[in-house]
Amino acid sequence: MRPIHIIAAACAALVCAAPASAALPEEGFLVYKDSRLSSATEVRAKGTGRLIATVEDGLQNAGSASACSDPTFELSGPRWKRFEEYRVNIASTPTYIRRAATLADLIAAHEAWESPFVTDCPQPSRTAYEAKYGGPTTRNASLVASLTADGLNVVSFQSLAGTVCDGATACVVLDFRNGRIREADMALEQDLTRYGFQDFWTTEDETWWNESGGRWAVSDAATHEWGHFAGLGHVDDSPSLTMYPFVHDGAQTLGLGDMLGIAARYNSKRDD
Ligand SMILES: [Zn+2]
Fold first, then answer.
1. In terms of Cα–Cα distance, which of 215, 182, 180, 189 is closest to 201?
2. What's the 33 CA to ligand 1 centre distance in angstroms?
3. 244 CA distance to ligand 1 middle (Å)
């Protein structure tokens, strides 16, 4: 059992207990929820989906290091033992963006984590990590409250209302046991306007928003979420890195810490 920096579960009415050190249970689900203003990581129980622990990630003492000089990464969760295919629910793409362009963005965002990385920095190392697109599916991500895995790793746009991902722009759920990921699903909120802003997805590169609305690049959101899918956590003090919390512009291009993180996650023999 490896340590995870999680706030012990005593959360009621969105108010959590004081930080405490906790460890991941032997098995369960990790839920990464990212939105425009907040991000949270939850540990939930197998079978029931009961909330065990949560941490609100966010701006701490944000550093000023550039993407190519910040070596920070977080490996608090489980990882894949072998790399499995993922499938995309292409038909779930919002009608106002093109399906082909969206699928291309999703695939490229995952491949950013393979060697050679998608980065504007020198490549500090290589990784054994592999992104394996397995074709389309008609299924949605497994997000029901009881969190029952279906054996498929799925990416889908869907309503997150009433699910464990409610409130998120983008969300990843990992089913894990003994430090290994057994299944991972990525869900992107299909109707971003339901959060009260005129927010929409885009297959253009730029993510931007203001007090009334914005555009959320599939490439930015998905690259960050694939980091969770691969087993990386948030780096709260590193705004230039892809794994900085929140959906943010520039996430589609990996920084030094992102690359060092995936390399450490899959090139190390220490917990094999
Ligand atoms: Zn995140």
1. 215
2. 6
3. 7
